[in-house]
Write a structure and sequence with these properties.
single chain, mainly alpha, flat, 0% strand, 3 helices
């Protein structure tokens, strides 16, 4: 899993650099915000920070909103019509499993 996370970080870094080279100001700012949100998830996943399950879920909600904001900015920058949020696209929450009870060794 650590190797997979490292590979994902390398890929994300390359993608981030491409956005910095090709994206407009709003896209670049949205990418920075998204990158920060994803790093917080990585830090918890690798044990660099400790947090509760609810804090973990909150981190994912922030990242999910960041993805949508990045998509919105990129679509505007590319001249794509329409939006990925708003009246026609209600805000959706993450699909997450419920918390496991202590001693519950079953996998979801």
């Amino acid at each position: 899993m650590v190797a997979d996370l490292a590979e994902a970080e390398r890929f994300r870094g390359q993608s981030f650099e491409q956005v910095m080279l090709l994206g407009g100001d709003d896209v670049v700012e949205a990418a920075h915000e998204l990158h920060s949100a994803i790093r917080a998830i990585d830090w918890q996943a690798t044990g660099k920070i400790n947090a509760t399950l609810e804090e973990w879920r909150d981190l994912h909600r922030v990242a999910f909103r960041g993805i949508n904001e990045f998509h919105e900015a990129a679509r505007v920058d590319l001249g794509v019509q329409g939006k990925v949020s708003g009246e026609r696209h209600p805000e959706r929450d993450l699909l997450l499993p419920s918390a496991r009870r202590q001693g519950d060794n079953t996998s979801a």
